Amino acid sequence: MNQMTGTQIPEEDRLRADLYNFMGLILSGPPDRMLLDQCAGLNGDDTELGQGIATLAKLARLTKPATVEAEFNRLFIGLGRGELLPYASYYLTGFLNEKPLALLRQDMAARGLARADTVFEPEDNIASLMEMMGAMIAGRFGTPATLDQQKTFFGKHIAPWAGHFFSDLEGAKTSVFYAPVGKIGRAFMEVESEAFRLSGT
Fold it and tell me: Looking at the whole model, is its pTM more than 0.85?
């Protein structure tokens, strides 16, 4: 394995971090025209992950920002609540702000991570967790996390529920633009789980 200098990381890890960051961005709020244009330029392949990317690119070329914003609101905000509640606590306990959130906050504090002052929702939402994982891999807040550290964080905070959430997003009755986002997320979580399993760390 190549020795890392500074925050240089292997190409494969940079691509993983990019995909985590992309998922964090597209799940944190409705995409604007610029993000839709970036999505439209993506290319997929024959893998399940690649098929999801190709479908997302096609939809991004055909969809207006206002349409995606309305879909995002129906899925995640709604009147009172959206169709889906994208929080680890909810998926794992049936309630918001439960033990999974407390455990995540402990791990965040240990890593020197804190919720941004402009963010008001609980830290265990899927967008924040995707962003945290991407930041750890890329070393955005210091030294890149080791594979063992990545595996531990993924196993505690993402693996137990994210695949289920992404399956729900893929099949949600109001999902159109976000259906392939769900497919990408579900396939990516499967790839990551298998890679961590095979890593033997």
Answer: yes
